[in-house]
Amino acid sequence: MGGFAVDLVGLAVNLVGLAVNLVGLAVNLVGLAVDLVGIDVDLVGTAGLVSAARIECLRAVDRSRRRREGQRRRREGQRRRREDNPRPREDNREQDVVQRERDVVTRERELVKREREQDVVQRERDVVQREQDVVQREQDVVQRERDVVQRERDVVQRERELVKRDREEVTRERALEEARVRKKPRRG
């Protein structure tokens, strides 16, 4: 009977220790949940940056399209004016040479502008892609941390089940011990 009581005391001490560990684990889970909320807030901010970069990229493309459209309209207007006001053939030769040289310079400038605009658009697309990659990595980190939280919750659940089984076993052993004590004949 004395050994059994010592076993019961040892089991009770173990149960108290397990309860303390469960409280510590619960505190860790609360801390991890707070971290997850902070990461979610960071993700919202990063998503805002990505959408702002996308908007800027679309604006650059729209500006480029409007410039090209304006240049095309100006060239058509110049062509119509030349057609409406023909000059004598001799005067036109020198002017045609000058105009062709101007057209070449204009086309080269347009090409340079287009290349610059395309470079800007490409850089903005690269920025957007990098930011999307960062968002994806952060989402992966959040998912891994959620998986860790779930595994820790599973561990807590298993430990609770073990504690419950230990309590049931202690209760059964007490009942058996009490039954044995009752069955023993009293000496008197």
From TrEMBL:
Biased amino acid composition, Basic residues: 69-80
Basic and acidic residues compositional bias, start-end: 81-98
Disordered: region residues: 69-98
Protein name: Uncharacterized protein
Organism of provenance: Schizophyllum amplum
